[in-house]
Design a protein that fits this description.
This protein is of the alpha+beta class and 210 residues long. The protein is built from 6 helices and 5 strands. A hairpin with a 2-residue loop joins strand 4 (197-202) and strand 5 (205-208). The chain is globular.
Length: 210
């Protein structure tokens, strides 16, 4: 059985080399000491002349009115971290039948043709997770790479592709194997281009596992 298209795309994405540039910066703390000369405080000498009678104080009394301005509360800054939606885990579900597996894979092919990464990751999540565990990139990076391997003509053909049920292998319970030649589209796909796809019934729905 040939290598599946999901794994082939993961292998391709692993060939991207990231160049890491290390940069160092030094800092020197110059602490020039500025000599400070303390000027002696001027000493006022008391007048030897007799002082006149003190006049009554006319200084205004300090105001005891507190400030009415309330303390300013800093506004909370919401985090704009975008969390990708989790794939539906049997939310709608489908029966454990070959027909349901074929319909599920047709949805995956249509999403592949439209470069719908969310739908592709929802259906092929187990296969992408296994590829990531093997050291390849996450689903959100391998699926766009997978779609980029197709020509515009192939993408358009997959958007309306169907599966010939006569060429599907459903001999194993809970598992359906769809060979590339079972894909009926305006463009012929070979095993070298797509490979065989294995779907398994998990958590009440069909998923691409290889």
């Amino acid at each position: 059985m040939s290598c599946s298209f999901v794994r082939r795309a993961a292998v391709l994405s692993s060939g991207v080399v990231l160049a890491l540039t290390a940069s160092g910066c030094g800092s020197s703390d110059d602490d020039p000491s500025a000599g400070e000369t303390d000027a002696p405080a001027a000493t006022s000498s008391a007048s030897s002349e007799p002082s006149a009678e003190p006049e009554p104080s006319t200084e205004p009394e300090p105001s005891d009115t507190p400030s009415s301005t309330p303390p300013e509360t800093p506004a909370a800054t919401p985090t704009a971290a975008e969390t990708p939606a989790a794939p539906p885990n049997g939310a709608g579900g489908s029966p454990e039948t070959t027909e349901a597996a074929i319909a599920r894979f047709e949805t995956f092919l249509h999403a592949l043709g439209a470069n719908d990464v969310t739908t592709m990751c929802a259906i092929a999540g187990p296969a992408a997770a296994q590829a990531e565990a093997d050291g390849f990139g996450p689903c959100e990076s391998t699926m766009p790479m997978m779609a980029g391997m197709l020509s515009e003509e192939q993408s358009a053909a997959l958007s309306t592709a169907t599966i010939d049920p006569e060429l599907v292998d459903d001999s194993s319970p809970g598992q359906v194997v769809v060979p590339a030649e079972a894909i009926v589209a305006d463009v012929t796909f070979t095993a070298d281009q797509l490979g065989d796809t294995v779907l398994a019934y998990q958590d009440g729905d069909w998923f691409v596992v290889d």
